[in-house]
Amino acid sequence: LLFHSGVLVSLSLSGPQLEKVVIDRSLVGKLISDTISDAILTDNFIILSFEDHNQLCFIQFTKTMDSSDVNKRLEKLSGLDFKISYVDILGPEGRRMKRHLAINSLQDMAICWWSATSDGAWPWSPISCERDRANLLLLGCAHGKLEVLSSVRTEWEPLDARWSARQPRQVLTVERSLSAAGEPMADSCAYKCGQSGLQCAALTRVPLPARALSCCRDGTEDKLVLGCEDSSVVLYSAHSQVTLLARAELLPAVISCHPSGALLVVGGSQGELQLFDTALSPLKIQLLAQDYSPEATLQFSKHCEVPTSLIQIQWAAPPVSLPSPDSTDIHDLLLVRFDKGPLGVLHFKLGVMTRGQLGLVEIIHQYIRYEEIQEAINVLSTMNWNTMGPQCYICLSAICNHLLKQKLTPDREAQLEASLGTFYAPTRPLLDRTVLEYRDPISRYARRFFHHLLRYQRFEKAFLLAVDIGARDLFMDIHYLALDKGELALAEVAKRKANDIDAESITTGV
């Protein structure tokens, strides 16, 4: 934690319990201002921005901090022998504003950005030139020095700007925009860092029901989640190009995605939390207690005194790590920070059966356990077969195995269709290698579904499924069962279809 005055506080946790606190006042009185706006802390240097100065502070360590040793990270800065320098930056003079900082995964480039809601000059602080209108700066921080490499003005007011964890030379922004009709939208932009500076390389416009208040991206950078002024939560998937919308029980002031990408935590300024899965189905929550009484939201005001608004929620996880489906890391601690305090940590008790994991597979298995099959299918529909093939297959198998053990009803029939449809009829075409890898095992589930339909004499649907599968033996199964049930016309059509497949295989030699 870095306070405006330069006091640096390091907290060491053992699980959710506070183990050690180190208060470092090494920077107090050594900076040009006590209005620190944002900070970047690395093993080799610190970068500070200020609310009332068009300057950035660069603090270079002459000794390297060992980030692998937690105890050494808690050492005071005075033991690292640092030197302080300043760099002038662009922007309007004499205005007090929040200047945000972010650094890329290689730690050789950073950005500084701020909101620029108006083009008009203030009478007491005129904008002298076009450069002063810039609100996104590209910084170089390699070789022990900080320099401004380029600047650009975003087309709309930025809500968020960060470096891509997958591409260290790409900056991702979310900007509040308007359609031609004046309707609220959000622009998801990707800026590439080239020799000519920052250039917008990709732009996606997401229509919104109301003005955006907050946003976050998942670890894969595929999903963008936005919280709006009318309490709606919007999720846009770049891969499927599908937009989902749900209504929250609170005003979404802050949003955070779980490192696994399976869970969204939405926070209200009054100190409430609500959970959603990746299909925006709400999940109930409660504090650990003897009685089972989950609620739609967790309200801090019922359990502790929170005189100020909630301004930050963040999972305890490395900031630039990419989520791995095979990862066994447990992320069950959520930092909650209120304006001017208090500061807290929520420890999520995820149970023994899930081994402490909170991924998409675990959530779908829990949905199946409690017979919430449609919610499980909705989550499966948000998963990408091309990048998460093994997890998608595990989830599809679990859903189909559960449904095929049950008596066939119209609802279960539709659910089986929807589950298999995530592979056979995806919103975006699957890669050839994905189809080849999972075609045979999933066709076995399609065959089981076919015989399940026959068992309940759903001849028409079974015939259509047999057409999709294109196997002669399935039509012969329909033929014999239709004869047995007196459906002579259907038996004849099925026999003819089986003969057609026979003739085609002889002609093609397959």
Automatic annotation (TrEMBL):
GO cellular component: axonemal basal plate; plasma membrane
Pfam families according to UniProt: Frtz (PF11768)
Keyword rRNA-binding: no
Compartments in which it is found: Cell membrane; Cytoplasm, Cytoskeleton, Cilium axoneme
GO biological process, one term: nervous system development
SUPFAM superfamilies referenced in this protein's UniProt entry, alphabetically: WD40 repeat-like (SSF50978)
Primary subcellular site in the record, as a coarse category: membrane
Record-linked InterPro entries: Frtz (IPR024511), WD40/YVTN_repeat-like_dom_sf (IPR015943), WD40_repeat_dom_sf (IPR036322)
Source taxon at top rank: Eukaryota
Keywords: Cell membrane, Cell projection, Cilium, Cilium biogenesis/degradation, Cytoplasm, Cytoskeleton, Membrane, Repeat, WD repeat
Family of this protein: Belongs to the WD repeat fritz family.
Protein name: FRITZ protein
Species of provenance: Climacteris rufus (rufous treecreeper)
Gene name in the database record: Wdpcp
